[in-house]
Amino acid sequence: MTDPSCGITQTDPSAAPAQTFAVGGGLTDDGTKFSFSAHQNTHAPASGYAHISSPTAFGGMDAQGHVVCLNQSANRAEIGFEFEKGGIAHLPNARSAVFLVEDNGPPGSLPPDGFHVFTASDFPTIGCGTFGGSFGNVVQGNIVVK
Q1: Residues with Cβ < 8 Å from 146, sequence gap 6 or more?
Q2: pLDDT in tens for each of the 146 residues of the chain?
Q3: What is the DSSP letter of 10?
Q4: Residue 114: inside a domain, yes or no?
Q5: Domain total for the chain?
Q6: Do the domain assignments include residue 43?
Q7: Quick check: is 5 in a domain?
Q8: What is residue 14's three-state secondary structure?
Q9: 13, part of any domain
């Protein structure tokens, strides 16, 4: 049976882990197709998956893999992922990339959501945190950053 000395205690709501996430999918005005889900809980590594297919990023890119970092600020997020499938045509040794997203509201909002792949690396784990680069307009799809 149940030990009555073991009770359920209420946890202080301020002790709940902070949850940050960025999710989305769609097509940009330069022909980049993307889908991603990135999640960050306090004191835990980022998790999720990303797939980017772009005719313009680094001369052609089709890569997918697990998310390794997420940095969120207001309506923007920077997400890094390691390549598990595919890669970059002109950078055959690249093993990871970072992309930027901007959530400007529901589909059809002005300005539209933004998406941009801005760096690639030969190293397997790339860091997040610089928010560099400009954004391509999302013409189909949606991005949510919380």
Answers
A1: 19, 20, 21, 22, 72
A2: 455 554 555 555 555 556 899 999 999 999 999 999 999 987 778 999 999 999 988 999 999 999 999 999 999 999 999 999 999 999 999 999 999 999 999 988 999 999 999 889 888 777 787 666 678 899 999 999 99
A3: P
A4: yes
A5: 1
A6: yes
A7: no
A8: helix
A9: no
